[in-house]
Structures are given as structure tokens and as C-alpha cells.
Amino acid sequence: MEYKRLNFEDYFTICSRNWNHIETDLWLAEYKQVKYTYKKREFIAEYQVRFDEARNCIQVILQETNEKSDWLVNFSFPKNIYDKFTYEGEVIQLKAHGGWSRMWLALQDIVRGEVRELLIRHPGCFIEVFGWSLGSGIASLAAEDIHFKFGVKPYLYTFGSVRPFFGKKTLNYVRNCCEKAYNFYDHCDIVGYMVPFIGWGAINHYKVKLEKHFCITKLFKPIKYHTQYQTPELYEWIDE
What's the predicted TM-score (pTM) here? Predict the structure, then answer.
């Protein structure tokens, strides 16, 4: 069975739970919560793992910024070495955004367990990982981890996509962990420029444009530019 992706905008509809309230027949994500503690403060990570029978595909979905504590996660800029291993004879230190990597580590064993169970029940199936905003960072970390743990290259789709990884070695490695990766961000979406420092990157940052011309003042209108990824026209130019 060949892999058949959904329309790009459909992934946003699912993971955002139809943020823009368009008419749709798609199912919408139903997130589970996992609580964890860092420096005596409680945080909540939210995710869903499900199986799409029609497309023979595991879907791993990560939620956007939803809790007040998520803002502390988003602004925990200092990089974190959250994993270290040998890959093709070279020691790899995975360096990522501190807040997002800690959130992923809180989910890691749970998500791995659910993915493992579905892989046993559906050998040879495909895996998709997707998320929006904060979820784009966690989804990128999850995609790398799924490849490392199970040897399967997932398909990655993220929206309002952040830049969660740091350093040339880390980026060179993670860019080989996906079958295909699309980290979409509108050029006027301020979230797409997080982390806003040299050395940070995404697996495959894809710039899209709701409007042709960039203006710095548009960066301060996230309600418009960070939420319009359900617009099919954004993706018409993509040549696969």
C-alpha cells in the first residue's frame, strides 16, 4: 500500500481542532494530558496517538500552546543537550530548545509505548507526526525520536513552525530522520522566527505567504498570520 497524505491544510484542521471553524468532515484531535514538574513548577504536555485504518498510518499529534504554563515553556530559550549517542561512527549531542525538549522528554516513554503497540499490530504501516505552534517544536523532536527508536522515518507536518534545534551537527542529523518534512511558517508569522538567534533551525523550514509583501508590523498580528494555515492557497505552489 502506498502512502497517501492528506491535504496540508487538513493536518492543521485536525491538530488545531478546527481553529477557524470551517465546515469540515474531518475528525479532530482529542488530546491526552501528561503532567510533569520542572523547578517545582507543574507543566502539562498534550498529545494524541491514533491509527488511521484507511491509510494504514499511525498519527502522532502534538498540541499548540494551550496552558498558561506553556508560555514559560516557549520562552525557555537556553539550549539543552537532551540526548547523546553514536550515529554512523560519530558522537551526536542533540541540542534543542530547553523548554520544548523537556516537554518532549515528559511525553517520550508514553508516546513510544503507544507507537510500539501500534507498530506490532500494524507491521509495515506509515507514521505521521504533526502539530502547530508549540506543537510544531514537540512534533519535530518526536519525529527524530521515532526514527531513532524504531528505525522508521516518519512524515512530519508542522504549522506556525518554530526552530527547535541548535547547531550544525544536530541539524545535519535530524534532517535525515524524516521521509518527508514540511515545517510551514508564514513569512509574517512571528512564531516562525522562534528561536530568533543564529544557529537555530528546523528540519525543513517551508516559507509560505498569505500576502505577497512582508512588513515588520505584520509580525505583531499573530491572531491573523499564526492561525491561517487552513488556507489551501498557501500550499498550491509546493512541488512534490
Answer: 0.96
Question: What beta strand segments (E) does the chain contain?
Answer: 32-38, 41-52, 57-62, 79-87, 90-97, 126-132, 155-159, 165-166, 180-186, 200-201, 205-208
Q: Pick the closest to residue 124 from 3, 240, 7, 5 (CA basis).
A: 3
pLDDT at 17 over 90: yes
| Residue 135 grid cell | 506543537
pLDDT in tens, 81-116: 989 988 878 888 999 999 999 999 999 999 999 999
**Residue pair 32/45 in contact by the 8 Å Cβ criterion:** no
Residue 177 lies in a domain: yes
CATH number at residue 157: 3.40.50.1820
Residue 128: closest CA among 110, 113, 117, 115: 115
